[in-house]
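> call design_seq(struct)
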C-alpha cells in the first residue's frame, strides 16, 4: 500500500506539471501541444520525454517575464484558468493537484468564452479534446455550486488581506468639442486620437 501511495503521488505530481505545461502551450498556440497529448500516457513511464516540454514551457514563461517582470500588464494573461482552478482546488479540499485544477479551470474558461461568443465552437471542442486527457474527475453541480462561487469570489492573489483584482477596460467612440488625449487612457494600446481638431467651428 505504501508503494501504491507513492506511485499515486508521483502520477499526481506529473499530471499537475502537465497541466501547467498545457497552460503555457495553449496560451502560446504552441505546435508541441498536440504532441504532448499524443505522448501523454508514455510520459508517466518515460520521464525523460517530459524534459523537452518542460524546457519549452519555461521558455514561454521566460519570454513573458522579460516583457512584464512585475506582472503589471501582458503577464496577467497567465491568470488563464487559474482563478477557476484555484476555486476547484479549494472546493476539493486540495485533493485535486494544482495543475489538474488549472486544466479544468481552462476548460471552464473556454466554455464560458464560447458561450459569450469570444471563441468558436470548433475552437472550444479542439481545446476540450486537448485538455480532456489531463482533467480530474470532478463535477460542479447544484450540491456544491454555492461553495464554488464563494471560493471563486476570493482572488487567487489575496495576500495579507489585500485583493488584486484584474480589471478590463473598453472604450467607445464619441464626438467631442476638444481633443481627447488617448495616451492617458488606462489601457491605450490600439488607441491613437488626433492631437488637434481636424476641423474648426466656423460659427
Amino acid at each position: 500500500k505504501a508503494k501504491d501511495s507513492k506511485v499515486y503521488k508521483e502520477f499526481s505530481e506529473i499530471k499537475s506539471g502537465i497541466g501547467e505545461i498545457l497552460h503555457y502551450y495553449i496560451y502560446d498556440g504552441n505546435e508541441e501541444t498536440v504532441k504532448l497529448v499524443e505522448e501523454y500516457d508514455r510520459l508517466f513511464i518515460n520521464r525523460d520525454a517530459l524534459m523537452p516540454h518542460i524546457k519549452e514551457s519555461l521558455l514561454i514563461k521566460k519570454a513573458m517575464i522579460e516583457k512584464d517582470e512585475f506582472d503589471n500588464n501582458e503577464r496577467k494573461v497567465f491568470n488563464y484558468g487559474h482563478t477557476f482552478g484555484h476555486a476547484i482546488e479549494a472546493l476539493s479540499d486540495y485533493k485535486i493537484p494544482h495543475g489538474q485544477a488549472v486544466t479544468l479551470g481552462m476548460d471552464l474558461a473556454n466554455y464560458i468564452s464560447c458561450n459569450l461568443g469570444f471563441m468558436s465552437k470548433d475552437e472550444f471542442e479542439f481545446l476540450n479534446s486537448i485538455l480532456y486527457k489531463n482533467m480530474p474527475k470532478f463535477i460542479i453541480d447544484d450540491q456544491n455550486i454555492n461553495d464554488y462561487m464563494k471560493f471563486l469570489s476570493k482572488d487567487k492573489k489575496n495576500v495579507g488581506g489585500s485583493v488584486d483584482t484584474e480589471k478590463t477596460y473598453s472604450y467607445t467612440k464619441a464626438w467631442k468639442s476638444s481633443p481627447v488625449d488617448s495616451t492617458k487612457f488606462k489601457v491605450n494600446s490600439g488607441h491613437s486620437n488626433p492631437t488637434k481638431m481636424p476641423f474648426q467651428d466656423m460659427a
